[in-house]
Amino acid sequence: MKLIIKLLSSSLSLFLLLSLFISDGVYTVHSSRNLLLQTEKVQCPLDFQILNYTIITSQCKGPHYPSRQCCAAFKELACPYKNYLNDESTDCLTLMLSDINLYGGYYPVGLFGNTCLQGRQHIDCP
């Protein structure tokens, strides 16, 4: 009987401890590294919502989305903002890539981020 009570009390303690990390039924993984990476970025001072995405929508068309044309259009749109986009202390690049899909059209995941940046986190502009 004492063993059962001890197991129940330790299980209750564990349950209470775990419940601190559960929010609205969603498990949240807390990592100091992830928290640091999220807080390192400064909010982008630019508003990419107001850009004219016609350069991309007119040249980068499905169903094949030719990388040469899509990347040329992406660079034409992005290069005027290269100093902000290449600044790794801001979230400008992530924001622009997201806004291209939101306001420019729906493109395959990674088309601009992976194909045009070729794995680098900066834009090569002339």
Structure write-up:
- With 126 residues, the chain is mainly α.
- The chain has helices at residues 2-19, 32-40, 54-59, 67-78, 82-85, 92-104, 111-116; strands spanning 22-23, 26-27.
- Strand 1 and strand 2 form a beta hairpin.
- Strands 1-2 form a two-stranded antiparallel ribbon.
- The chain is built from 7 helices and 2 strands, in the order αββαααααα.
- Residues 1-28 form the signal peptide.
- Residues 47-123 form the GPI-anchored protein LLG1-like domain.
- Keywords: Signal.
Question: Which tags fit this structure?
Answer:
126 residues, mainly alpha, two-stranded antiparallel ribbon, 54% helix, globular
Structural class: mainly alpha
Form type: globular
What is the H/E string?
A: HEEHHHHHH
Radius of gyration: 23 Å
The span between the termini is 77 Å
Mean pLDDT comes to 76
Low-confidence stretches: 7-36
Helix content: 40-55%
What is the beta-strand fraction? under 5%
Q: Let me know the largest β-sheet.
A: 2 strands, antiparallel
E-strand count: 2
The total of helices stands at 7
- Sheet with the most strands: spatial strand order: 1-2
Signal peptide: 1-28
InterPro entries: LLG1-like, LORELEI-like
Domain GPI-anchored protein LLG1-like: 47-123
Keywords: Signal
Q: What would you say about this model in short?
A:
The protein has 126 residues and is mainly alpha-helical. The chain is 54% helix and 3% strand. The protein has seven helices and two strands; from the N terminus they run αββαααααα.
What is this structure's SSE topology?
Blueprint: H1 2-19, E1 22-23, E2 26-27, H2 32-40, H3 54-59, H4 67-78, H5 82-85, H6 92-104, H7 111-116
Antiparallel strand pairs: 1-2
